[in-house]
Amino acid sequence: MASRRFGRTVLMLTVVAMVAVAAPAVAEEDDPWQSLNRRTFAFNEWLDRNLLIPVANAWDFVAPDAVQTGIQNIFDTADMVVVFGNDVLQLKPVAAGQDLARLVVNATVGIGGIFDVATQVGIPQNDEDFGQTLGYWGVPAGPYLVLPIFGPSNPRDAFGFAVDTMSNPWTYYVDWYVSVSIAVFKFVNLRTIYLEDVEDLRAAAIDYYVFQRNAYVQNRELVVYDRESVDEDLYYFEDE
Question: What is the pLDDT of residue 29?
């Protein structure tokens, strides 16, 4: 489950870019740890540019797009176990049925998840985690928080991430160093898939820290409360 957190920043920035640009900015008082957050963000950016991007470029040179997609499909299928559990905890029987069906179909017909057969036959894919489950039951997110390596978060989501990581059953069947190696490999593969997208977002953002923060906070509001768009009165308008 650690690898899901690795990849979430990349996916979140790409998927909700339009939301982050169109919606009002997060107020400064919602980011009381900004000084520490910016230092951690700078470290993560340095790590990305000096280590992750070169490795991702090398992997992109070696592995065709179809291989990268197939590997990501395998990880997504494995993650459905935890997603299904959070569907149940959030009392979402329809989503639970969909995600259980995805797990079974892709693990069998999709040959261990290499092929995303579930999507091809029209089975929706949900993305629930324990941070969302806590939010569903009324636990507040808390201030914005940037974690080393793992990126954007908040106290609720950081705790939820730890629970999800410990809840993934396959991690109990391999040694810790194998789990870490697999998580790093997933992160590299996912970072490779989104190499150009992230660079485009960096180039377009006036302040990439602010953009990433707004995108994360707004996206979490959407997924926790199952909204289709950000309410205009959800955030303060503020120039930064």
Answer: 66
- Among candidates 107, 149, 137, which has minimal Cα distance to 5? 149
Q: Are 70 and 206 in contact, with CB atoms under 8 Å apart?
A: no
Q: In terms of Cα–Cα distance, which of 138, 131, 137, 113 is closest to 217?
A: 131
User: What residues does 145 pair with on adjacent strands?
Assistant: 153
pLDDT of 3 above 50: no
Q: What is the CA radius of gyration of the chain?
A: 18
Domain boundaries, the chain: 2-20+40-224
Burial class (CB within 10 angstroms; exposed 0-12, middle 13-18, buried 19+) of 6: buried
| pLDDT at site 13 | 53
Report the distance separating Cα 134 and Cα 214, nearest Å: 21
Q: Is the pLDDT of residue 16 over 60?
A: no
3-state helix, strand, coil in the chain (%, to 5): 70, 0, 30
pLDDT for res 12? 54
